């Protein structure tokens, strides 16, 4: 995974599409073996946060011109277990366990979504964050062996199919009920309160600044795509 691929994808879309009405940030890895990407970023933060941050900012100008537009972040309730270290851009914490790397990256998602919502209030589009719940996908392939999945068969009804898992995502993407509403967290097509763990405005702004540096966002902006700054 590299941020170069994100920039390449964004360029292709911007060249082909005059309007971007909905952006669903669903890229993610879970409990991936320890890896540092070519951008010198820990893989959970690289995929789950920095790629979303970069892609969203590269699309902002086009989305503003396409308003009303919506941005949806696919998150997880595990963000509540995350923590932030302003001196460690990878939120790596001395090679902490992979689960906490995932939780930290999802906390970064939450902070980014909330900070983005503050910055785009006057630009005519909305931001939503979704927890799809436990969904049977390949995201747990680095953690769950095939034999363990067989043991889960008796309780498989507790785990959503991909179709079931995308319902809240689609609800936030197209529901007319949410017109004029922005910045909230949703699960099972219903709003839930944000955890206090992502309520620090100073961290929110600091993470945005760190993310701009990590993704070299300011180097990529041109007269047609300046992103949002404060």
UniProtKB/TrEMBL annotation:
Recorded superkingdom: Eukaryota
TM region(s), chain numbering: none
Gene3D superfamilies cross-referenced by the UniProt entry: NAD(P)-binding Rossmann-like Domain
UniProt keyword Nucleotidyltransferase, yes or no: no
InterPro entries noted in UniProt: NAD(P)-bd_dom_sf (IPR036291), SDR_fam (IPR002347)
Keywords: Oxidoreductase
Name of protein: Retinol dehydrogenase 11
Species name: Tegillarca granosa (Malaysian cockle)
